[in-house]
Write a structure and sequence with these properties.
20 helices; five-stranded parallel β-sheet; Rossmann fold; Sigma_54_int_dom_CS; 15% strand; transcription; alpha/beta; Helicase, Ruva Protein, domain 3; extended; DNA-binding
Length: 461
């Protein structure tokens, strides 16, 4: 919260006498005063300094004081504004309050009027700062790692508040291995970065590696490194991921795709906390935090001999599950607003309005691609929007019923009704993490009906 000891006040008036008089009234070791004789000078000050309160005269050169107020509230919404007016300008005062001014006083002004207006406005400053801090706790956590990650963690749903709480707790630990589960597009890497940048390892490297993208022949070289001449083409020594991420964090995405024979090597390294480069017999210790992620049920894969149970337990000391976007739809308007503002900045656009129909339609959409899909949708919408208002025509969305009924008939293969039904049931169970009630809701059938079909087709749950 802003304390009285660092309140920054900007006085914008074209009369030097008025500026100096107000400065005298406001002389206080707890205030820092800035003065401007024109709007351009004032905006230059606001660009370079964090201003908390701006005192603006209604009558100004270059542009009307009300226009200045409107621009301040648009470009610097965190600044509270007090307007100065004459007794004959009450219509302007009323209009200024509608535009977002916090208070006003009239010329000729008295010290008591100025002090009262400052005291009342100071309360708005304190309140706004408190709300920003609350939003940071539940949305972006901190600007420090937000800038490093490139995106904010957005959401006010119970699931997101719980997620942020878990991130904060596990980040305080030094070496606890974390497994992040969730569908594609839910933001698993973003959560991993948040854990890293909130931890004591934040000054060191964060490396993200997609396990499914590394060929078996290059696995040891990529993760453990190699010496010069270790194999054909090894013209120089190479540092592996474990060594490169020493003292930092190694994020292993799609770890469920790791081949079984490679899992054994991985397990040994994680247990010993030592690596041996290809072509060397010297063991190199490492101090790296491991965060893994998967969109599969790798604990269940063990029963199919697809993933080692001992490796699963090694990487899952602390599990964080990310809910799909369709299960936290109250976050969709917040995400929509965030992405519109983000792409406004990136593309130099000024989209300030969104049709209510857009939000209503997005709230009925299933989002199989989760937050990533919403981001891509908004990016396209902002690109094709020529005005300052987004409408439903800017979004490529199918009707909710069509989403559920769509089946790909583009191939020449024969369609077996039972096979299609089995496939739908398996996908619903996968999407709901084997929760039969949720799977039944997705299929629009009763729990009992789903249970009968599971037994009929002998589907493992």
């Amino acid at each position: 919260m802003v304390s009285i000891s660092n309140l920054r006040i900007l006085i914008l008036d074209d009369e030097k006498l008025v500026r100096d008089e107000l400065e005298e009234f406001l002389i206080d070791p707890n205030f820092r005063i800035f003065k401007a004789g024109s709007p351009s000078e004032a905006f230059d000050i606001m660009d370079k300094n964090e201003i908390h309160i701006a005192i603006i005269d209604v009558n100004l050169p270059e542009m009307n004081g009300l226009d200045v107020l409107e621009k301040v509230k648009h470009d610097f919404p965190e600044i509270e504004v007090i307007m100065i007016s004459g007794y004959s300008e009450m219509d302007s005062v009323i209009h200024s309050m509608r535009l977002g001014a916090s208070d006003f006083f009239t010329k000729p002004f008295r010290l008591r009027d100025v002090e009262s207006a400052i005291e009342r406005t100071k309360k708005f400053v304190h309140l706004k700062k408190s709300l920003i801090e609350v939003k940071r706790n539940y949305s972006i956590i901190s600007e420090e790692f937000q800038k490093a990650m490139g995106y904010e963690i957005i959401g006010d749903s119970p699931q997101m508040k719980n997620l942020i709480n878990l991130i904060g707790k596990v980040a305080k630990t030094e070496n606890t291995s974390v497994l992040i589960t969730g569908e594609s597009g839910t933001g698993k890497e973003l959560v991993a970065r948040a854990i890293h940048y909130l931890s004591s390892r934040k000054e060191n490297y964060f490396y993200a590696v997609n396990c499914s993208a590394i060929p078996e022949s290059l696995f040891e070289s990529e993760f453990f490194g190699h010496t010069k001449g270790a194999f054909t083409g090894a013209s120089a020594s190479k540092v592996g991921w474990f060594e490169a991420a020493n003292k930092g964090t190694l994020f292993l995405d799609e770890i469920g795709d790791l081949q079984l024979n490679l899992q054994t090597k991985f397990l040994r390294v994680l247990e010993d906390r030592k690596i041996m480069k290809v072509g060397s017999n010297i063991e190199i210790p490492f101090d790296t935090r491991i965060i893994a992620a998967t969109n599969q049920n790798i604990e269940g894969l063990h029963s199919e001999k697809g993933f080692r149970l001992d490796l699963y337990h090694r990487i899952s000391s602390f599990i964080i599950h990310l809910e799909p976007l369709r299960n936290r739809k109250e976050d969709i308007p917040l995400l929509l607003d965030y992405f519109v503002k983000y792409f406004n900045r990136v593309m130099g656009k000024n989209i300030s309005e969104i049709d209510g129909a857009v939000i209503r339609r997005l709230l009925t959409y299933e989002f199989p691609g989760n937050v990533r899909e919403l981001k891509n949708m908004v990016e396209r919408a902002v690109i094709i929007c020529d005005g300052n208002r987004l409408s439903l025509s800017h979004f490529q969305l199918t009707h909710p019923k069509e989403e559920k009924r769509r089946i790909d008939f583009s191939t020449d293969e024969n369609l077996d009704l039972e096979l299609v039904e089995m496939d739908c049931i398996r996908k619903a169970l996968e999407r709901s993490n084997n929760n039969k009630s949720k799977a039944a809701d997705l299929l629009n059938i009763t729990w009992q009906s789903l249970d009968r079909r599971i037994k009929k087709y002998k589907i493992e749950v």
